[in-house]
Design a protein that fits this description.
Blueprint lengths: L2 H7 L7 H6 L4 H9 L14 H4 L1 H12 L4 E5 L8 E7 L2 E7 L5 E5 L13 E3 L2 E3 L6 E3 L4 E3 L18 E7 L2 E5 L7 H5 L2 H5 L8 E10 L3 H8 L5 H4 L1 H4 L14 E5 L2 E7 L21 H5 E7 L3 E6 L2 E11 L2 E10 L8 H30 L14 H14 L4
Antiparallel strand pairs: 1-10, 2-3, 2-5, 3-4, 4-9, 6-7, 7-8, 9-10, 11-17, 12-13, 13-14, 14-15, 15-16, 16-17
Bound molecules: FE2/S2 (inorganic) cluster and fe (ii) ion.
Length: about 400
């Protein structure tokens, strides 16, 4: 059965936007959603405090776009081939990603239709999923195959109790899912990104490292921090001074733009005195187009995917809310598929450098969270040249929450 047919038969959670908005109890929030209007970044103010602190906002975000837009869930190399799977969760929604018997990529809610246990845990290879609670059994296409002690249940139809499928697509090695019953095609959300960045040939890079960072910060503050470079010479002063990161010495040359569903920041690489770039040939991806050799990029793609990419490394972000005030950030490290790039020395150099940059942000952001929780903060303006990405992110979020998109 085609996935679209299956999804259309699923009794999806009720997601009537108007009904959800009408049920909001918080008067401040209800009024903000009702009266919000798009405004130029040269005049707009950022979110009021409650957008970063309210449990009601967090639950709305889960209902109205984390479960309705294309979200990043993981890398294809987390699947080892046919009959393999991995589990994850985004915004506390458990998901199961599968490569089935034919190697077809599938994704399901990782929830047993019997009594809601996860049908799979961790990752691995298997021919069947056996629920760890009462041992209902499912094949890798999500069909219910075994139900112990159900012989006497009247008119039991296994096909009514298959796993709940969700849409799944990949862009290069990056896997995205959409849990909506009907959704915009993934290509429409990606827009120009493949044309801009498929030259990296990210499928050929090797995923060598992954780490989960946790911060007592609302997820939006983390995304916003990653969608502007206003803070970089201040927060990352110490890393800038190392002369190792691509964006040092060129702050005024950095180009920031926000379009469609993404923010894009491009930084020309510093050159040595002979006019050559600083990368060692054995550490970079062969065959990169000149444009990608000359600058590094930060992409922040609505709502939870981002990267920092340059010729020798791509760090992929999953920004995953755990509550209204706590966020998991998974960093996955990709390097070119060469022995030198994957050598322990090179990996240690890259990981140490960028971990330090991450730590500089992670030291500051919980303090910003305390700030937005303070009665002393209302809402601030945006730097017109440096914070267009934050403005676009907030616009996208409000378009979704208020039902204008
Ligand atoms: S919850 Fe899965 S078999 Fe009961
Ligand atoms: Fe930063």
């Amino acid at each position: 059965m085609a996935i679209a047919d299956r999804i259309s038969k699923i009794n999806h959670p009720k997601s009537d936007h108007v009904g959800i908005l009408e049920s909001i109890q918080d008067a401040n929030l209800a009024n903000y959603l009702k009266t919000w209007q798009p405004m130029s970044y040269k005049r707009a103010k950022s979110f009021p405090s409650f957008m970063y602190t309210s449990e009601a906002v967090y639950q709305l975000e889960r209902q109205l776009f984390f479960s309705k837009t294309w979200i990043y869930v993981g890398h294809l190399s987390q699947l080892s081939g046919t009959n393999s799977y991995f589990t994850t969760s985004i915004a506390e929604i458990p998901l199961l990603i599968v490569s089935d018997r034919q190697g077809v990529l599938r994704a399901f809610h990782n929830v047993c239709p019997h009594r809601a246990a996860p049908v799979a845990i961790g990752s691995g290879e298997c021919n069947r999923f056996i629920c760890p609670y009462h041992a209902w059994t499912f094949d890798l296409e999500g069909n219910l195959r075994g139900t112990p002690n159900f012989e006497d249940y009247e008119d039991f139809n296994p096909a009514d109790h298959n796993l709940t499928a969700v849409y799944v697509e990949s862009w290069g090695p990056f896997i995205f899912v959409n849990m909506a019953a009907e959704c915009e095609p993934f290509e429409a959300q990606l827009h120009e990104l493949p044309a801009l960045f498929d030259g990296y040939q990210a499928s050929e890079w090797k995923r060598v490292h992954s780490v989960d960072y946790y911060t007592d910060t609302n997820w939006k503050l983390y995304v916003e921090n990653n969608a502007e470079n206003y803070h970089e010479p201040v927060v990352h002063k110490s890393s800038y001074s190392t002369n190792e990161v691509s964006w040092n010495n060129s702050y005024d040359l950095i180009r920031c733009e926000a379009r469609h569903y993404y923010y894009l920041q491009q930084t020309p690489h510093p050159k040595d005195s002979d006019g050559n770039n600083r990368f060692k040939p054995e550490l970079i991806q062969a065959g990169l187009p000149e444009r990608l050799m000359e600058s590094s990029s930060i992409v922040s793609f609505w709502p939870n995917f981002a990267w920092i990419a340059c010729p020798e490394s791509i760090i992929v972000y999953t920004i995953d809310p755990q509550s209204a005030s706590r966020t998991r950030i998974r960093w996955e490290w990709l390097v070119p598929n060469t022995a030198a790039a994957q050598s322990p020395e090179n990996l240690e150099r890259l990981i140490t450098l960028y971990d330090r940059v991450q730590q500089e942000d992670m030291d500051l952001l919980p303090l910003v969270q305390k700030g937005v929780e303070s009665p002393g903060y209302v809402a601030g303006p945006f730097s017109p040249s440096r914070e267009v990405g934050v403005h676009r992110f907030q616009e996208l979020l409000m378009e979704d929450l208020s039902g204008r998109r």
